[in-house]
Predict the 3D structure of the following.
Amino acid sequence: MATHTNFDATPFGGSVENTEFQFSRLYWHHIYSGPSPNQLDITSADAKTGWGQTTVHNWTIYDGVGPNAKLVARAQGLHLYAGTWHNTFNILFEIEGFKKSTLQVMGASVDEEGEWSIVGGTGEFAMARGVVTKKLHKKIDGGDIIELTIHGFCRKQITLTKSSPWGGNGGSVVVSDNPLKIESITILHEGVIGSIQYSYINQNGKRCTAGPWGSENPSRGEIVLGPGEIITQVSGTVTVHSNVQCVQTLKFVTNKQKTYGPYGNSANKKLGTPFSVMAPNGKAIVGFFGRTDKTFLNALGVYIA
């Protein structure tokens, strides 16, 4: 890349992912006359060409059209006439979870239906791109109510958090390479969990395999997650086996209301100490770490993102 003293490019040390967002059935109030307009002309059109009229606006956006509709955002900016109306404005959100986040929007006005481009964003919508689709809902005194659908993508930094591990301190530490999404899991077990191996996509988009952590065992369990399926809960038990503390059973639950397992304890021995972890809403269990002495899975923890 060419360099210049006024420009600096620094590799980003974190990890990001594409986050899709969509807001439907929003209603923009475009009020251009009457006692309470939400736009104001600041320059007049040229008498010869008709160009140049510039209007600032503070349009309101609601989540419905009835008397109980809630104000969710404002579209603040300007539109000017240059043969057609050109719009450039920020959608500033006022609802919890997106408060003070913005979308930057540009585009030409259309009659009753059309699209504007999302060309940027801040806060929860950092580096957003997408479209705002507009459709006339109804005409009212002094203006229009326009139905909006906002659909786009933004870049969200990923933060991995660890939970536990559960089990003993035997063996060596085993970890994963910045996991982002689990694709499949293989568990070998006989009485206890002999080993775990899983494939995953890491935060650089690379397909990786971790494990097997442990040794061969006769009973085999395989989990292949379907499209859009993520693990939301992991539970199990830990026990002492052959004088070694290790993971005895494992069970996995996904967002598709599917349960896999429990695996282990095929000898129906007394269950050991239970453990369980559930990902918070909007997050997933994306990987594993733990300990193994190459005979047993001595301990297991999860990454959440």
User: Anything to note?
Assistant: The longest strand covers residues 16-31. The radius of gyration is 28 Å. DSSP finds no helices and 21 strands in the chain. The chain has a mean pLDDT of 91.
